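Pasting as-is:
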Amino acid sequence: MSEIAWLELQGVVNMRDLGGTPTSDGTVVKPGRLLRSDNLQDLTAADVRQLVEQVGVSDVIDLRSVTEVDAEGPGPLMRRADVRVQHFSLVRDRNRAATAEDTLVLARKDVDTTDPAYWVRHYLGYLANRPESVVAALQAVATASGAAVVHCAAGKDRTGTIVGLALSVVGVADDLIVADYVASAERIERIIDRLKVRPAYAALMKAELAEQVPQAATMERLFGTLHNEYGGALGWLAQHGWTDEDTSTLRHKLLGETVHP
């Protein structure tokens, strides 16, 4: 795995560029193509200028629920006419209003949320409940004119699932996808501190810190399930409308390969 390319901005704590990640066939993800992040609501004007004018961000793929988006209000990048912001909720919206409670870990006595098996079920739930959002989010990354930022609230669970699938589609090995996923653990305390003061999450952040730390076994088991049941991420995607053309477009986006007609 290449060195983690953190973007040190005032308004986020878990943003990084996936550029430099190698694939199994010897190519690498190009810098400035795919970024992952926590909540973007606190971006400063200087942050926005850096992302758009220096990093080249053109697209935001927002994985939060309808309720989260409504509670938080429009983010700073929504005010940029040169940035396309698209929302793809990964939870089953109840009458188009899934609660933030559906997406964050609470202090619960009936489950062990430090157990990777819990998180695997959680992530597989994204695929089962909102396959159309999963496919559309990946297509949005593939068709972005500049850098695409994928984000949710913490930037580790929903974001980790979508980014992991994107990397798998272009040929990144599972162990490198796992390494990227667990990188968020380095900043988990800062992530939680940010969420505690946000409107959509403040009342919900009651879990112990250990319950929020991403573990390698979670992503290993998620991709193990995809391999065992579908032949891999591409097998699952193919069952939900993803095409060879989509794969080619995503490879062109992330790796710079020529798209063949």
